[in-house]
Amino acid sequence: MNRRKKIYEGKAKILYEGPEPGTLIQYFKDDATAFNAQKKAVLEGKGVLNNRISEFVMTRLNSIGVQNHFIKRLNLREQLIREVEIIPLEVVCRNIAAGSMSERFGLPEGQALPRSIIEFYFKDDKLGDPLVTEEHITAFNWASTQEIDDMLATTLRVNDYLSGMFGAVGITLVDFKIEYGRLWEGDFARVILADEISPDSCRLWDATTNEKLDKDRFRRDMGGVIESYTEVARRLGIMKDMPRVIEGGVA
Known about the structure:
Elements (H helix, E strand, L loop, with lengths): L5 E4 L3 E5 L5 E6 L2 E4 L4 E4 L3 H18 L6 E4 L4 E5 L2 E2 L2 E8 L2 H7 L6 E11 L8 E2 L1 H6 L5 H23 L3 E15 L2 E7 L7 E5 L9 H4 L5 H12 L5 H7 L3
Antiparallel strand pairs: 1-2, 2-3, 3-7, 4-5, 6-7, 8-12, 9-10, 9-12, 10-11, 12-13, 12-14
Helix pairs in contact: 1-6
């Protein structure tokens, strides 16, 4: 890898200075974490799969007018993205009870919710990414009322599109987490989708068997993480050279 300026390193990705002002290079690592990084592992090939799947999803969202930071994929592990000011919130959309939703409300995992529910979490691993309300968000100036409205509307559009996209290949979209950033143009900023959309950030179940095809396989020590991510990529029709990449290993 060429020597270049690292801007930020997170649990699953590294951001480097981009070739042009207003751009960054997003590098997908093989690191897997859960429970706010209390559980860690390296899963060879995960970064390659997430790079390709996120590229696929972001490109299609762009095509229906959901603006996001993705510009183009550079190689097996890297994307060129727009530089944005990340809003310190995780936006979670839930269609079916699972994970913390089941635990908090005593709902059996797999129970369909009356309607899609959107939740906000404050991004802070040390605090355990606490659930917050719109009152918290505006009081602490994490986002404006208009930005909240934009995030809610965009999240519902993303949910509708992804539910159909995954449903068409026999996968149920249980829930997903996305992040947003401000794209500044002079003194004006608009909120666009950022980060990634992949099996790391979505709960994806086989529509027939309810087999988990996502990061829960790592969280719950179920094994077969890479195989499940590969299956998602295969069903979406984006494998191409992926089998050779996974079998041969990636530097």
